[in-house]
Amino acid sequence: MSKNLFKFDIKTEKAQQMIDITHLLRQAIEQSEIREGIAVVYCPHTTAGLTINENGDPDVVRDIIEALNRVFPVNASYRHFEGNSHAHIKSSLVGVEKNIIISEGKPVLGTWQSLYFCEFDGPRRRNLFIKIIEMK
Amino acid sequence: MSKNLFKFDIKTEKAQQMIDITHLLRQAIEQSEIREGIAVVYCPHTTAGLTINENGDPDVVRDIIEALNRVFPVNASYRHFEGNSHAHIKSSLVGVEKNIIISEGKPVLGTWQSLYFCEFDGPRRRNLFIKIIEMK
Amino acid sequence: MSKNLFKFDIKTEKAQQMIDITHLLRQAIEQSEIREGIAVVYCPHTTAGLTINENGDPDVVRDIIEALNRVFPVNASYRHFEGNSHAHIKSSLVGVEKNIIISEGKPVLGTWQSLYFCEFDGPRRRNLFIKIIEMK
User: Complex ipTM, two decimals?
Assistant: First the structure.
């Protein structure tokens, strides 16, 4: 692997869960020693995803999970035999890749923003990739 | 800040609003003097977002706002005490970061595409970042 | 056009359809001869989009299309005169741009992941752009 590509293991603990992974983003940026550029964060799974949202009140990410469940129920009538179509749909809606700007060696996030790994069909062992691109 | 990172102020005027910000994207690309590469556009807020959609008929972006309100109502039963969970959910669904290809000094957009700042909990003063990455 | 920007024609054959375009991504990466970096994939249309999801069971992408139709029906009450607002909404939700990491000359995709072009208002002739960015 390239010296600017980082791989992390994530262990999820619930069927559906938002895990704050902002510290992994900061760690990859620090290890790359790149101070200006972008970080491309990538989830290589089809029943999980990534999102950027509020870290102040943990009820916000709970509300996101519950609202998605109301609209795309776990037990609706789906064709896919594994019974986790709801998780595939949520993955396509929040997305599996996020770009974050790096300035002065730090991610450019808003005051209340954290990067979350979204587990929609856990618990499982998951992977995460972060690629750092330099541009002064 | 790096010479290829641009920050803009945006003043939204309604509770929910789509604001065409394609001119800010063009401005950042021109000021960078980079002719081939990508632009990473980033919204540092958790109750707003970014989307790329039609600019021909303004009813399209109105339909997007109304459809999202039908599915994720402003006044549903949410946990988050601030009462704006609908806006956090919409932010996670449209996303807060978009990548646009730059070719010959211009954004590669479709004929009918514009870049929109999506206000879901306004009116407010908001920020926007654009990072330009060169690749010939 | 830059030597690292690739344009493809896609012919969709149904009103709504997910077309696996992972081979176009691999082709662009190979032609660029870039072994480490990212690929920015871009759909220049407002009633189509891109998503990354499962390729093992074709019922998964059928379930995604059906679930989106249940929530954002083709024939709901919309303002836009062309009658395809459902397609614009779906385009904003799955998004029109995706970033994929390149390592050792190959896209870093999960075992079950493919890149899909999402037609929401076809059949039509569509375009696709892929820009390759190098970062060792």
Answer: 0.97
| Structural domain count of chain B | 1
Residue ranges making up the domain that contains B77: 5-134
pLDDT at position A120 over 90: yes
The model's pLDDT over C71-108, given as tens digits with 9 standing for 90+, comes to: 999 998 898 888 899 999 999 999 999 999 999 999 99
* Nearest beta carbon to residue A113 from set B2, B40, B46: B46
CB within 8 Å of B96: residues ≥ 6 apart: A52, A113, B42, B43, B44, B45, B46, B48, B49, B50
Task: Look up the CATH number of the domain holding residue C43.
Answer: 2.60.120.460
What is residue B84's three-state secondary structure? coil
| Stated pTM of the model | 0.97
Our CA-based measurement puts residue B58 at a distance from the nearest CA of chain A, in whole angstroms, of 24
Closest approach of B2 to chain A, Cα-based (Å) = 6
Instruction: List chain B residues with CB under 8 Å of A113.
Output: 44-46, 96
Work out the average pLDDT over B11-32: 98
What residues of chain B have any CB closer than 8 angstroms to a CB in chain C?
36-38, 51-54, 57, 59-60, 62-64, 66-68, 71, 93-95, 98-101, 103-104, 108-113, 133, 135-136
Backbone angles phi, psi at C77, to 5 degrees: -90, 105
Size of interface A-B (CB pairs under 8 A): 102
Task: Specify the length of chain C in residues.
Answer: 136
